[in-house]
Amino acid sequence: MIVVMRAGATEDQIARVSQRLRDLGFGVHLSRGAERTVIGAIGDKAVLTGVDLEAMQGVERVVPIRQPFKLVSREFRTEATVVDVGGVLVGGPQIVVMAGPCSIESYEQLLETARAVQAAGARILRGGAYKPRTSPYGFRGLGEEGLRLLAAVRQQTGMPVITEVMRPDQVELVASYADCLQIGTRNMQNFELLREAAQSTKPVMLKRGMSALVQEWLMAAEYLLAGGNHQVILCERGIRTFETGTRFTMDLNAVPLAKELSHLPVVVDPSHGTGKASLVAPLARAGIAVGADGLIVEAHPDPAEALSDAAQTLSLEEFAAMMHQVRSIAEAVGRSA
Question: Containing domain of residue 20, as a range?
Answer without folding.
Answer: 2-63
